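Suppose you are handed a protein chain with no further information: no name, no annotation, nothing but its sequence. What can you learn? This example shows the usual starting point.
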Amino acid sequence: MKVSWEQVSAWRMQRQYLDPRTGHRANAIVSRLCGVQAQVWSTAELAVALRQSTPDSNSVDRDTADLALMKTWAVRGTLHLLRPDEAGAYLSLMADLGTWRKPSWQKASGVSPAQIDALTDEVSAILDDGAALTRDELVTRLLADKRFTGMEERLRSGWGSVLKPLAWRGVLCHGPNQGTKVTFVKPSSRFPDWKDVPAPDEAAPAVITSYLGAYGPATPEAFDRWLCLNSTSRPKLRRWFQDMGERLTEVEVEGRKALILTEHADELAATAPFEGVRLLGGFDQYVLGPGTKDELLLAPEHRSRVSRQSGWISPIVVVDGRIAAVWEITGQELVVTAFPGAGALAPKAVEEEAAHLARASGLAALTVRLA
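A reasonable first move is to predict its three-dimensional structure. Written in structure tokens, the prediction is:
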């Protein structure tokens, strides 16, 4: 089965609620996207609102308050919004990497695997009563135990490197903020829909199915890059995909082999290319899913404009499925900077999208300047 990349991008846009947009609430959109990166809370809100036919800038906050979404360190070690009933599968595959057991991690952190095991047990016990503790409160409780003497600086670090393994094991996630302070809670004590972290071989098909349902067709390597920056062992990765058997179908995209869920193959083959413009925010899943190294999505010569220093992913303009420009808001003005050679941007189409972006951002209006 051969399909064009234009069909692939159009199908992905349909699956990701970009064409057409949806009336779903935040938790349904987050589920379809395999989580939404929430390092910067406003970008998570925008990612959801832009996919709604009538943007609801409060949708993420509402579903978080209703315990229909949770915030935790997940894929690629970054903070994500996930549905509590689905989070365990993603966390399982991250925990399976055993990052904290690697000598390089131990050398950088100064923390041993035995100490991580002890922290896991102690934090689980501390948070078991359902309390939401600030970082200071949690660390103070931990430092009362002599086993954790000398770990104060690492435990208080905003990067959370020592806490991430605990999140992947399902004993800790972010709770409601107390002013500007983050809090931590135990998922099983806070979220009624929480399911325990399954075994990796049980979690893998569930996560692969969700991933291919939003970002397929894709290769195992693309999946692994999205999951953990290519840290899964090659034999294990191949086995996970091979074990899915007839649930996967191989397709050829512009001469490259990739995999799609068999249930979606006919739908993909019948998809017509998307012609139009979409404005997407920073760290949007449309680009994070396949990754900025996908040369069919983003020309290599323009990658540095999207994937910037310190891991920052720029807001993007998608034209006919491909990334053709970046944008920023200055005051009430939307400044769009097109990539050389990417083709002319249709001003009317950009203005229509700018109106949707303004509604999603809670702004009255935006004027457009094409740079």
